[in-house]
């Protein structure tokens, strides 16, 4: 079994319910839940919005590969109402963020390093994001 750390966020609809539903789906489809942070309300990062986020991190044990985990989390996002992923501008490759009912990010998979167009592990921006690092630290301390 591998240790997979996942970041979750929601800033549309019933945010708490959306995170709970995502966690249940991850538990059933990717692997058993080992640790879960508390929920943290945060301001949007990288874009302007009147809708604050609710964020959390979880750790699951999984037998799936990182790429299989990515595919499953993308399916879960779609099932929970996410219609598009973050896009990048053509001219500078700068991310374009927007409101979303659910966001599920793979943060770390054991001590594995992956660097492909589809997936980068550890997550390349997690150290710049307090909404990831605070709940992640919570579960790393357990």
Describe the structure.
This protein is of the alpha+beta class. The protein has one domain (2-140): 7,8-Dihydro-6-hydroxymethylpterin-pyrophosphokinase HPPK (Alpha-Beta Plaits, 2-Layer Sandwich), CATH 3.30.70. Helices cover 28% and strands 29% of the residues. The chain contains 3 helices and 9 strands. It has helices at 15-29, 66-79, 130-140, and strands spanning 2-10, 33-36, 40-42, 53-62, 87-88, 95-96, 103-109, 114-115, 120-121. Strands 1, 2, 3, 4 and 7 form a 5-stranded antiparallel β-sheet that branches. Strand 5 (87-88) and strand 6 form a beta hairpin. The longest helix is centred in the N-terminal third of the chain and has 15 residues, at 15-29. It is globular and about 40 Å long. Mean pLDDT is 88; it is low at 87-91.
């Amino acid at each position: 079994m591998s240790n997979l750390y996942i970041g979750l966020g929601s800033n549309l609809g019933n945010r708490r319910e959306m995170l709970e539903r995502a966690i249940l789906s991850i538990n059933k489809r990717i692997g058993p839940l080992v640790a879960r942070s508390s929920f943290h309300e945060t301001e949007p990062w990288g874009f302007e919005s009147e809708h604050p986020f609710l964020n959390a991190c979880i750790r699951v044990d999984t037998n799936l590969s990182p790429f299989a985990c990515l595919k499953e989390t993308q399916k879960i996002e779609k099932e929970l109402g996410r219609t598009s992923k973050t896009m990048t501008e053509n001219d500078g490759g700068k991310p374009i963020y927007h409101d979303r009912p659910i966001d599920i990010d793979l943060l770390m998979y054991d001590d594995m390093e992956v660097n492909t167009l589809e997936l980068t592990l550890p997550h390349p921006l997690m150290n710049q994001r307090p909404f990831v690092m605070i709940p992640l630290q919570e579960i790393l301390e357990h």
